[in-house]
Amino acid sequence: MAAKLQNAAADKEPRITLFVVLTCMVAGSGGLLFGYDLGISGGVTSMDSFLSKFFPEILAKMKNDRNVSNYCKFDSQLLMAFTSSLYISGFFASLLASPVTKRFGRRPSMLFGAVLFLAGAGLSGAGFNLLTVILGRILFGASIGFTNQSIPLYISEMAPPKNRGTMNGFFEICISIGLLAANLINYGTEKIKAGWGWRLSLALAALPASVLLIGALFLPETPSCIIHRNGDSQKASRILQKIRGTDDVHDELNSLISAAADASRGASEHPLRRLLRRNYRPHIVMAFLLPAFRQFTGINFITFYAPVMFRTIGFKESASLMSAGMTRLTATICTLATMAVVDKLGRRKFFLLGGTLMIVALVMVGGIMALNLGDQGAMRDGYAYLVLALLCIYVAGFSWSWGLLPWLVASEIFPLEIRSTGQSIFVASDFFFGAWIAQSMLSILCYMKFGVFFLFGGFVVLMSLFVFWFLPETKELPLEEMGKVWEDHWFWKRFVELDEEKGNNKNVQIA
């Protein structure tokens, strides 16, 4: 009898099924789009063939003008506009993505993003002038605005609570793989003597877009989204049974129905206005600050301009691209390691461990460049390779902390009624600060020189303290119970109000 009861309990327990793993992997492949674009743009802007066609004055300054500071050779507002146009476009697209994702579903939003990325690849690869190339990047940004908004939501709603961190890691690992692939492709296309290698690099963006487009055609919609949009509990139940590997999904289905009912009660109120309620204060703070902090780690400065920076400290064109590829290989390996244990060890420990490594690496890089790289000339090989090693440590720390975890935490913390809007604010904030970094950092590097690394190190200290004091642990907690983390937190509990009609906290009603 006892054995039968144990078997019955085991049947009810959600488990990792092959179907849910494949589903989350296909959705996570959308990270290839973001990663590939980040990596490819940094590489082509260091290629002589690309610079000679669109930015000849920078190439001349880099090769012939010995009076220009090492830190200022790539300082060009137009070059930075090429990079930042992606983020500006993504900012507006992410705001538009919220009502689209909420009304039509997570899956159509992913499909639309893949189509936009395909169009951007064609326009960029065929680019006959700078305007055409920038228009292609605008399409890239619009695509990523939709995919970055919908994919983390999709994975979190599909994944079992105890494995949500690992499943969300598919998105971040695909970003790293996309970056690594872009670096390797840049390394190969740079060697094309005819000078059209940059076109091939940009046009090959069609490959990751095709992977997502074809894969998303076969994805089901999430049970939570199905119930919220049309109330089809039978269809939601069938999908739940398939992804949970058990026929008994009654309790989870009821939680989803309850959350959808709570969300529909305030459907007439605009989501942005609802977010201003006091009991959503913790959510909106995290949605704004986590992506802002992520940008102020300096990662996109390193990602975009790593090839440029390696050329600044003395590496040749091919060596600079290969060095950037080494940092991305490090990131990919470390992201895989984080995925394996983040659900057991928790989010906060990885934030703090990764932050510590980043602080040490940034301070040491700044110190080495202060002592060994002047305004003219190159750094000695030994110090240049030491900078490369330290940047690999920095990227490892980022991969363990601010790479994967902000996306994961943001996809967990929002109640169903504000989930799509909250994720849009997160993505829009990431794009907004990303655009600021991309448009200003070469000028800041020119002005602050090596001090820029101390600046980023100081930011990481501040954000690590914020995590220590204000970010609650969210591991293994079902989405419908996530409100408890705010109720029990020493600071945020003062903002969490009771629902007077129910006598229950609204934040507990999460699906």
Topology at a glance:
Layout: H1 2-12, H2 18-28, H3 31-44, H4 48-54, H5 56-64, H6 77-104, H7 106-125, H8 130-158, H9 164-189, H10 197-203, H11 206-216, H12 223-230, H13 233-244, H14 250-265, H15 271-275, H16 281-295, H17 299-312, H18 317-345, H19 347-372, H20 381-403, H21 405-413, H22 416-448, H23 451-470, H24 484-487, E1 498-499, E2 504-505
Antiparallel strand pairs: 1-2
Mean pLDDT: 82
Q: Count helical runs.
A: 24
What is the C-alpha radius of gyration, as a whole number of Å? 23 Å
Overall SS class: mainly alpha
The end-to-end span amounts to: 34 Å
Q: Largest sheet, described in full?
A: 2 strands, antiparallel
Q: Please, what is the oligomeric state?
A: single chain
Helix content: over 70%
Q: What sort of overall outline do the alpha carbons produce when their principal axes are compared? A: globular
Question: What's the helix-strand series?
Answer: HHHHHHHHHHHHHHHHHHHHHHHHEE
Estimated share of beta-strand residues: under 5%
Uncertain residue ranges: 1-11, 499-511
**Neighbour order of strands in the largest sheet:** 1-2
* Number of beta strands: 2
Which features does this protein show?
mainly alpha, two-stranded antiparallel sheet, 2 strands, disordered N terminus, disordered C terminus
